[in-house]
Automatic annotation (TrEMBL):
Family from the record: Belongs to the UbiH/COQ6 family.
Record organism: Pseudomonas mangrovi
Pathway this chain belongs to: Cofactor biosynthesis; ubiquinone biosynthesis
Protein name (Swiss-Prot/TrEMBL): 2-octaprenyl-6-methoxyphenyl hydroxylase
Pfam families according to UniProt: FAD_binding_3
Amino acid sequence: MERCQVAIIGGGLVGASLALALQQGARERGWRILLIEPFAPGSAWQPSYDARSSALSYGTRQIYERLGLWPAIAERAEAILDIHVSDRGRFAAARLDAASEGVPALGHVVENAWLGHCLWRALDPEVVEWRCPAEVVRLDALVDGYRLQLDDGSLLECDLAVLADGGRSGLREQLGIEVRSTPYQQTALIANVTPGEAHAGRAFERFTDEGPMALLPLADNRCALVWTRPGADAERLATLAPQAFLDELQQAFGYRLGAFTQVGARYLYPLTLVEACEQVRAHLVVLGNAAHSLHPIAGQGYNLSLRDALCLAETLLAGPQRPGDLLSLQRYLERQRLDQELTVGFSDRVTRLFSNARPLLAAGRNLGLLGLDLLPPAKRWFARQAMGLGTRPH
């Protein structure tokens, strides 16, 4: 029976980042890592106007710097130099800027395809072996690990199985791991748009009675739009002719970046906060969106998953020669528990506060934005949360 030390089920951004974080230590320990992924990574970078993207916090940049990957990522990373937070129809606004926080950028926006391309190129095939295209159809617990059955009928065993197969993980369900689901009764419309003026590294968080929107700077003077609306209205917006869509977007956002000139493909994602009730068992870890799927408006989901992956790698490499013992995995989860609780809570509270049209709450958040802009300690706390530094010592 073929056996490896770590089998990572899901070779997307989180799974590949975990493999990279483990790579050097695995080489020294003689570990073999398998990345099992249904969709083959692209062999060449193909730029696309419609590429989906992720907001990487400053803390995430620091992680990729430690892993030696940041110079490659930075070739297509657009810096967020300041963030403008406002509430439509009300006077208060808050502004965060990199210079005031003493950092080169509050974060960066990177196309997922480019980030994946950089990760896959950095993996050493002598340590990290791809099984691709391949899918795990069954997981069975053993005394000393897990047995994996692949869709081609082949079997393999591992000391540690890492479930990083996304928010709709069928294996998570198969293993009887329950989830807490909290629907937001909202749908995110995701698209890339081109403004009439240069974005100059500015990001915007705009809150409306129908739901929040974010506009993030991308390379080539594009902006990544996340527009949260009630489901039926999001579907209506997705089917509008391009100019009609831009007209509605302009009305909701205003002219801070001039007149929008282009919109690409529009994608819809119904939004639910999902948290796995178990993240570790003996010889098993649930990671990434399979562990927690957050609302995208606060831009925290991927950054939290990357911090989880780094902490898991550090804990495994400080543990026994054979990874997967329950004590080590519980130690990992205990180290990350506060970060997860604070980040999920921050994301959820921001979403609910700024998606509510009740006059009292609207007035309260207006005062909150005003206070945020006037009170340096409050602004610094908010900025550290946004930068992914909220659970680190100052």
